[in-house]
From TrEMBL:
GO terms for molecular function: NADPH binding; oxidoreductase activity, acting on NAD(P)H. This is NADPH:quinone reductase-like Zn-dependent oxidoreductase. It comes from Leeuwenhoekiella marinoflava. Residues 17-332 form the Enoyl reductase (ER) domain. Keywords: NADP, Oxidoreductase. SMART domains: PKS_ER. InterPro entries: ADH-like_N, ER, GroES-like_sf, NAD(P)-bd_dom_sf. It holds the Pfam family ADH_zinc_N_2. The keyword Cytoplasm does not apply. The keyword NADP applies.
Length: 335
């Protein structure tokens, strides 16, 4: 057990706003408490929730000065006295089951609760491992825990080019379902097909409802929507009788409206999902981690990296994410 405080760099922010509020700050990183781990970070995964949190539109408001970030990968530098499952030198990645009031991952030397640190499969690079858990745990929760996806069922995925969208496509294929990717940009079509999508719909050029009904015949059994807004009604119209529509994001700031009669007559289930309902149940997390590790080891689940930035260019990385041009995960690398 290391008892020394060490110097490090951490991205912090003192007010909500645009990417420019993020500041790389020199900090002192204390020795890990009994149930903590100190990690030498090699790569950091960026998520949409990071942008929302920085902008002040996430459900949890930041307390300033605020840390940021829920994903990273690196090497265990030291452990607290009660930590049994990890040792210095272990290559690990982070499961984001904590509050940014207490912890953050945007740094080169970070403290984290030991329960949120996991050895990752050797097959992954640090960059891939930094983009593993948020996306694939969300995919597992949506498809397995909540959606109950069965082999042969259709799944429509809105905002499919995100890291979570790609993780969902791969997970649907692993389960034996049929993934239909929905994206706004035609230039992303090939990448989505290469990622495993059976069909791709370009929402800016095609009628979502007509295309989904043409592909499925009787509608989609499971619709996963991270957008909302005006597209929501179109997705409901293409959902099969007794189908499910699960909302896991709100990229559109528009209000959604839909036909109540259609929901009633089709006996649809519409519900929201966030990661807490998976992360707060230990047995669910254990099952999800085992499923993901098996998929990574077998090669059926592999994080896709869109672009990497050095830690010092964190504001540029956030701006890139706000352009919505990426296909896959945006990563910060540590020199």
């Amino acid at each position: 057990m290391d008892t020394q405080t060490k110097s490090g760099k951490m991205v912090m922010f003192n007010q909500v706003g645009g990417p420019e509020v993020l500041q790389l700050t020199n900090i002192n990183v204390p020795a890990p408490a009994s149930n903590e781990v100190r990690i030498l970070v090699k790569a950091i995964g960026l998520n949409r929730v990071d942008l929302s949190y920085r902008q002040g539109v996430y459900s949890k408001k930041p307390n300033f000065p605020s840390k940021i970030g829920f994903e990273a990968a690196g090497i265990v530098e030291s452990t607290g006295s009660d930590v049994q499952h990890l040792s210095p030198g272990d290559e690990v990645s982070v499961i984001g089951a904590f509050s940014n009031d207490d912890y953050g991952t945007y740094g080169n030397l970070i403290l984290l609760p030991a329960y949120a640190v996991q050895r990752h499969p050797k097959r992954l690079s640090f960059q891939q491992a930094a983009g593993l858990w948020v996306s694939y745990l969300a995919a597992y929760g949506l498809l397995m825990d909540v959606g109950g996806l069965k082999k042969g069922q259709y799944v429509a995925i809105n905002a499919a080019s995100s890291s979570t969208g790609l993780a969902i496509i791969q997970t649907v294929k692993k389960i034996g379902g049929i993934p239909i990717a929905i994206t706004t940009s035609s230039h992303k079509k090939k990448a989505l097909l290469d990622a495993g999508a059976s069909h791709v719909i370009i929402s800016s050029e095609q009628d979502i409802t007509a295309e989904l009904l043409s592909i499925t015949g009787n509608g989609v059994e499971l619709v996963l929507d991270a957008v909302g807004g005006s597209q929501f009604e179109k997705l409901i119209a293409a959902t099969a009788i007794t189908g499910q529509l699960i909302v896991y994001g709100a990229l559109s700031r528009e209000y959604s409206s839909w036909s109540t009669i259609e929901v009633l007559s089709k006996k649809l289930t519409i519900r929201g999902f966030d990661m807490t309902e998976l992360l707060m149940v230990k047995d669910k997390v254990k099952a999800a981690v085992a499923f993901i590790e098996e998929g990574v080891t077998s090669g059926s689940l592999t994080p896709t990296i869109s672009k990497t930035f050095p830690l010092a260019k964190v504001s540029e990385a956030h701006r890139f994410m706000e352009e919505n041009s990426q296909v896959g995960k945006v990563i910060l690398e540590i020199d």
